[in-house]
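One-letter codes give the sequence; backbone shape is given numerically. An example follows:

. . .
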Amino acid sequence: MCPTLLGQAHERNGIFGEFGIEFDKKFDNGFDKPNWEKMPACGYSRPQEVFMRQFYLGKTSSGYYKAYFIDPVTGIRDYGKSTGTKDKLEAAVIANEWLKNGKPVAHANSRKLKSDDSILVPTSLKSFVDRLSESDAKTVVAMLSEKFGFDSPVLSQKPAELGKPVVEALALVSSPVQAPAPTPAETPKPKKVIVIKKTADGKMKLVKNEKPALKDGASFVPSIGLTPDGKHLLCANLESFWDYDNSMFIKRQLDRGHSLSKKYAFCMKAFVRNYWRPYFGDEMCIEDLTVPELDDFLFYLHDVKELASETINKNINCVNRCLNWLAKQQKITVNPVASVERFKVDADERDIPTETEIRRLLALDWENNTAKLAFKVAAFYGLRAGEISGLRVCDIDVVGDMLHVRHSFSEMDGLKTTKNKEVRDLPIEHSIALQLMNQARRNPEFGDLSYVFWSVKNHKTPITPGYYGDCFYKALEEIGVSELVRKERNIVFHSLRHFCCTMLKQKADKEIVMQIMGHKSFTMTDHYSDHETQEKFENMRTVISSAWEKYLTA
């Protein structure tokens, strides 16, 4: 190969240097000069002796490798094709595949190949003719005459006397290039939607969605429970909507970062199973529901089933949320539940134990000491029952006397984040920290991730949150607070959190109390601390006595 052609076939980035040709100087035009002593001589009449690779790899500015193919006849390099990879070995494998099967017509990643008939066909006969010597030209004429029956007076050398590389090259040129058969027009494929998702390890990943793009406001959400005339069955859609593992609505809610527990979905599905399906049956369609029918059903729950107003409103929420979702997805046009009037809820104010009752509970010899320790954590530090069950050994800092509230636990959801998805770091008494650690060490499966309040039935799981309430109610009865009185005062295990908030607010700034309780607003802190205490009454007594003392003693 002549120096001029070789100079045209390589670039500044040295794509040939790593494949057997070394460079030691620069041409004036900026190209690297080959070391001719370390490569075979190249001349017009001896192309068969020139060492020529069939392709070379070059790196783009973005780090991807391009494959440059050399025409075996003309010696001209093509413009290169990106292999779509930054790995050199992988790029070499891809280029070898292209060399064998043909270069891709589309972008490199598609691997869409040309037909074999179009592989390595010379693109310029003129450049081939320009490089021929007189003897080579005579040989070509002889070969063409022999192949096509031309009459030629010039025959000086037989094809058999030529070198094999020249014969093969000339045969390739002399072979007629058949035009590819016309392909039938392809119908345009639907556009693909590229979705970027975050994987479990925090990396971003491109996901190709084969579904066509949205048209005219249509939704990809599949329709559930369709009748032959296109209506939506009420109960079938409700049960599918609240199916935690398969619901598209719940999946999207969780993907958006909203919290929706399995327990909540289970309760909503229970409303459908226990009330809606027995009343409306399986054949009622959403499009056929009317507001008067819905009102009759709600009063059936109130008068016949004797459900509380709050429970009836939860039934409304159960269906209203589903129908709103279907309306947003343009599955239905109207949500009839949106026009239903809700029931007024007279919420009973939650009472709290008095200071005297708390002292008596602390002095009581509980039947279960583990439940008594849970009572202390709830009353002194305001932890919810689920947060107590979610405590693990790694959450107890005995040296720094700190309690890290990181998780909550429920029977249905298992270990999960706290209610407001935030971690609370609470300073605790050293004696309480030791009691918590000693409780955890009794677990046969003790470890950093083992539970503090572990279950005796399964050492790898915690005690269910409802167990603390049962033991608390039994302890209240032992100090004289009967079940009838407890229910009349509306005292539950969660009342201990109210007690903690109320007592702390009388001793500290509201903002500090809000941080300890893990509240998002001052309003919630005020709600939890809005209870009368004996200390508050004593303070009121002191103020009244000092104000009217001189008048009462006159």
